[in-house]
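User: I want to check something. If I give you two sequences, will you return the structure for each one separately, not as a complex?

Assistant: Yes, each is folded on its own. Here is the first sequence with its structure:
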Amino acid sequence: MFRAGFIHVIRTATTERRVAQHGGDGVAQRARRDHSPHIGSIGTGWATGWLVAVAAGLAGLVCFACSGSKSPPPIEGGVAPRQCSGSALCVGATIHMCQGDMIGDEIEDCAPSGQVCSLARCTSPDCQMAEANASSVVGCLFYTLEAETVGEDQANPTSFLVSNPGGDAATVEIQRPSVGADGTTQWMGGTSTPVPSGQSGRLVLPGGAEVTGIGTRIGGAVRISSDRPVTVVEIEGDDVAQNATSTGGTMILPLQSLGISYLSVTYPEMATPAIANIPGSRGGAARVMVIGTQQGTTIHFLPFGAVSAAPGDGFGGLAAGEDYPVVLNDGDVFQIYSGADGEDLTGSLVTAGQPIAVFSGNISTTYGSQVTGINSPDMAHEQMPPIATWSQTYVAASLTPQSNIDCTSFFGTSGASIWRVLAATNGTSVTFEGPGVDTLQLLPAGGVAAPLEQPLALDAGQAASLIGVGSFTVAGTYPILVTQGMDCEPSLSLAIAVDAGTLVKSLPFAVLPNFDQLLGIVRPQSTEVDLDGSAIPDGAFQSVGEMFEVAEVPLGACPPNQGVCPHVLTGAAGFGMTLRGMDVQSSYALTAPGLRCDPGNEVCLN
C-alpha cells in the first residue's frame, strides 16, 4: 500500500531542550538559543514567529549582488557607516573588509589587473553584469556540495555540466575551501576546464568527499567558479560508467540568486523492503542541507514536524517548530536527516542573516511504495529556491518514464507522477486546471487516496501530495512551490513557474551519455520554442489551460565518446524546461527554476 505523509498539522512543541554540540563530520557551532515565545499552534506563538521570519526574508531578500552593487556612502578615514553584512564587499573597483557592520580597510584593488569588483571578489565585467541579475540561473559563482549517497555508489564521481552562452571562452574550475586556524576560509582552485563559446564542459569531482552525518561539516562545500557567465547542472552519482544504482540531479543557482529564507521539500522516510536491502540508505531518510556563503552566518532551522534524527549521530532530535540555530562560515555545511518511518522534513523553515544555499530531498526513496518490479529506489535531490522567488502559478509538466523500462508503477497507474504543493502563507487557496486534473488524487496523511476537491486550502508550511497522470496548471492565491516525483525511478524536481518574468528566452544546458533523456517544455500558447536551432513542432504541444501548452520532447542519444552533449533552447516569448534522465538502475530529474523577482522589492529590480 502506498504510504506517505501529506497534509501536515503544526503541533505544539516544547520550548526548550538540552543543547549539545553534535557531530557528523565536524563540530556544530551553536548560537545562543532564542527563548522568545514563538512556538505554538497555528495562529499563536510559533506560527506568528515563523511568519515574521518569512516576512523578514521577503523584505530583506533577494539580491545578494544588488546590495553590494549599490554605492555606499563616502569613506571617511577608511571606515564608513553602511550595511556591510558579509565578510567583505565592493566599493567601486576595490574590495573592502567588513568590520562588524562597517566598511573597513581595503583588501584588493581590481582595476590594475583589468578586472572589476563583484560579489566581493575581482572578476570580469561580464560576470559583474550577470551578477546584477538576481533572478537568473546564469552566473559565475555557484555553491554546492557532494551529497551523501548509498554505500555502493560512494566512490562514484559527481559531475558538473557547465554551459557557456557567451561570446567568449570561459575557464571554469572546482574550488574547495581551506579553513585556517582562525576560522577564515580560503577557496583553493582544483580541476579546471575551458568551455568554448556556445559549448559545454564536464568537471568531475571524485567520490570520497561526501557530506555525511548530522551536524556541521566545516569546509564541506564545493564552489564552481567561472570567469564568464555560465549555467551549471550537477549530477550526483554520475553514471557515465553505468555502474550507479542511485543518481540525482539539480540545476545550481548562482550566488547572486540565493536568498535568506527557504522552505524544504522531501518525501516521508519509509524503510520499505527495497530500501532496507540497500546498505547506506538510512532507511529512506529525508534530509536538508544548508551551505554558508559568508563568515559568521547564523542559520535557524525550524522543522515543521518532529524530527528524531538518525540513531548513532549524537543528535537528540527536535520537536515540531523548535528553533535550532547554527553558525556557518563561508563553505560550511549543516545537514539534518529524519530518523524514523513517517518523518518528513517538508515545510521545514531555514532562515539566515546572509545568503545561503539550501538543498533537500532523500538519500534514497521509493516514495513509501511497497510494490516490486524493475523500478528501484533512487536519490531525490533538488536545490530549493528562496521563498521570495516563488510564484503563484506553475505548470506541472509530467515527466514519463522511458518507454522500454517496462516497470511496475509505484502508484498503480502507469506514467503517473507524485506532486507536492507547499504553501508559505496562511490561508493559501490552490486550484488546478488542465487535462491531468481529472486523474488527480489527494493523499492525506495515513489515509486512503481520494479524488481531489477544489480549492485546496493550505496554511504556512503545509504541503499536499497528489498522484495523477498528465500535465496541468496549479495556481495559488499566494506564492506556492510545486514539485514532481517520477514513476519507476524516484526523483524530485520543481514544477515550472509561469508568472510574469519567470519564463526564460534562452537556456544552454548539457546532458551526460548513457541516460534516456526527456524534456518537458512549457510555452505560452502558439509561440515558437527552438531546440538546437529547430522549432519544436506545434503538434507536440497540448494545452494545460487557457494560456500555456506542454510538450514532451525526447533528446537524441549522447554518444559515450563525447563525454557531454550541449543543447540550447530559445524562444522569443519565453519558455520553461524540466528534464529527466533514466538508465534503468538510476535516474535524475531537474528543472531550470523560474525565479520571480518581486517588483515591490527595490533590490530585485533587474
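And separately, the second sequence with its own structure:
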Amino acid sequence: MVMRKRLKNLIIFCGAFFIFAPLFVFAQENSFVLKEKQALDLVSIIRKYPLTDAQRDFYDQSIYDADSEYSIKTGAVMLVKQAILQSELDYWLVKMPAEFSKRFIKAVYKIVPAITVGDFSGIIGLIEKYTVEQANKYIDKWMKENKVQIGSGIGKYAFPSFKNNQQVINIPYIIVYSPTGVNKAKIVVEFYSQKPIEPPESRGSAEGNMDWATKTSWPKDRWITSKYNKNNKIEPFIVRVKGQVVKDKYGNFSWDKTVEVKLQQPSVEVEFGEAVPEIDQSDIILSNIQANQSQGFIKDKINEIKKKAQGIIDQVKNFFAIFKPTAQISSFVEPTGDSSPTPEVGKLPDLGGREDQQEDLKNLAQQSQEIADQAEQVVSEPENATTTYEDLLKIKADLEQAIKEKQAELDRLLALASLETPLPTGQATSTDSTSSPQAICSQATTQEPDFDKVIFNEVTWMGSTKSSSDEWIELKNISVKPIDLNGWQIFNKTQGLKIFFTTTTIVSPGGFFLLERTDDNTVPKIKADRIYTGALANIDEMLYLVNSNCVLQDKIKATPYWPEGDNTTKETMERNQFYGWQTSSVVGGTPKAKNSIGKSKPSSGSGSSSGSSKVVEVGLQQQNSTSTASSTEQATTTDSTSTSTGSVQATSSPQVLIVEIQITDGSSTHDFIKLFNQSTSTVVSLSGWQLKKKTSSLNSSLKPNTWRYRISPYEQAKNRK
C-alpha cells in the first residue's frame, strides 16, 4: 500500500514536471533581460545626469559657436530628456520575451562594440542569414557567455511645437548592461528619434535646474538660422550615453565615482545622418506569462501569413492575366472555408503545350488558398478558445514554413514557364481600372466614413500648371498597422472614375499611396503606385474610398465646390495636422511626402463658396474641470454645406481635439462636430464631458445625443445634433 502511494506521488510529480518544465526552462532562456526596476532606475539617473548637464553644456557651446551643431544637439538632448520625464514612460520587457525580431537583435549588436572588446564586424551580416529562431538562439548564447543584459522601452512626449502644431513623439531606447565586477557594470544606452520632429518653443532660462517637465530650454533661434535646420524640423537622431554604474545593497544604481573611473565619467553623444534603428514593441514577442497580449500579436503574424498566401494566389492570377489577359482566371481557385461559396473551377488559358505547368500552378494556388483559410480560422478564433500560446507559436511556425515552400515552388514554376514574371506581391497593377468587372459598392455612398485606416490625404482635382488633366490622388495609412488594399474601391459621383484594387497592395503605417491619372508622367520624377483613368469634375463632385467589405472609409464632397485647393495657382487640396482640409502652400502639392503647413488664406478659385458667413466658437470641456480639456477652435462656416478647420489654441497638452464642424442652413440633423483622440496609447472616455458654444450674448452647452463614447487612440468620433 505504501509502495503504491509512493509510486502514485512519483507519477504526479513527474507529470507536473513535464507540464511545467517547458515553462521553467523557457523562462530561464532569456535570463539576460534586465528587470523593469533596474532599467527604469538606469534611465532615471541618465536623465538627472549626464543628460541635464549635456543640455546645459551644449547650450553654452552654441552661444559661442553659432554655426556649429550644438544648437541642434541641445534640441535632441532636450527632447530625449522630456520624453523620459513623462509619466507614459514604458518598459517593453516587463515580462520574459520569447522571441526578438531580427531588426531588434541587429540594433543590440550595433551597440555592443561600445561596451565590450571583440570583433563584431560580421555579426550583423550573420544575423541577416539566420532565421528568426536561429538569431534568437545566437543572441541568447552570446549574452549568457558574455554576462551581458539588455533592456528596452519607450518614452512618449506630447507638446505644441514652436509653430503651435500639436506633436506626439516616441523615443524608444535600448540598454546594454555589462558587469565589470561585484555590483559594478558598464552601460550604453541609445535613444532613437526615428522621424523628423517639429520641436517645441524654448521655455525657461538655461540657468538653474533644467530637469523639469515644463522646461524646454534650448537655443531654438540659433538653430532656426543655422544650416542644420531642415524644413523647421530636427532630423532623426541617436543620443548615446555611456558610463559605469554601481549598485547599492537596495539594488539602486548611481554613477561610479571611484578613482579608477574618474576619467571615465558618463558621456553623451548625439549623431545625425546615421541610420536610426526603427524598433518598436512589436519586435518583442512575450511568453505565455502574458498570453492575453502576446496571443493577439501572434495572431497578427498569422494574419500576415494569410496575406502572403493570398499574394501567391494573386501572382498566379497575374501570370495567366499577363499571358492571356482575356482569360477568365478569377474562378480557378476554390476557397476551402465554409463561409464562402465554392465557385465553379474555370478553364485556364492555353499555355502553348505547357499543360503540366498550368496544372501545377492551379494546384499551388489551391494549396495557398488552404493555408489562407487555415490562417483565417486561427485569427478569427475567440479569445476564450482553448488554443494555447504554444499552439499558436507552432501553428505560426508551420504556416511560415508552408508558405515559404509555396513561394519557392511558385518561383520554380514561373522560371519553367519562361514567361514574363508577374507583378510582385504588394504592387498594384497599372491597367485601366474602368475595365474591371467588379461592381461598385453603391450602398457605401449613404454611409458615414469610418476614417480610421486609410484616407484621402491629397487630391489634385485642378490638375497642374502644365495640364488640367494632370490629376492625382494620394492615400495615407493613418493606422498603426499595415493595411492591404486588396478588394478596396475608389469611385466618383458619376462613376466615370472607378479604381478597383484586385491584388495584395500593402500600405505601411503612415505610408502614402500615389494614384496618377492616365500615365506616370502626371507627377514628374515620382513613380506612381497606380495608374488610373477618369476625370474629376471641378464642381458638383463626390469622391469615395470603400474597403473590401463595402464599408465607406473616406469621402470628399464638392457641393458645389471642393473644400480646398486653388484652380488658378494649382495649389492642391491636402489634409492638415487635424485631418481637415487645407490649400497646400506648395504649387503642385507634396506627392508621397508630408503635407505642407498650408496656405494662410484661401485665394480666389480655392473652392470656397459664396454667401455670408457666420462664426461660431465651440469648445470641448471635461465636466468639473476649470481648464479646457482639449482645445478651442474658431470655426468659420458658410451658408452652404462646408467643413472647416480653423486655428486651434491649446491651453494645455490636449488629448481630444475638435477637428471638423459642419453647420448647414438646411436640415439641422445634418450638422455635426467631429472629435479626434490624438493620444497614441490612451483610450478616452467622454462620459461627463461637455461641448460649450459661445454666442454674442451668452455661453450655452450643446446637448449631444449621447456621451457613451470611448475614443480609441487616433480614433475619431462624430456627434450629431
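Because they were folded independently, the notes below concern the second chain alone. The radius of gyration is 29 Å. The mean pLDDT is 75.
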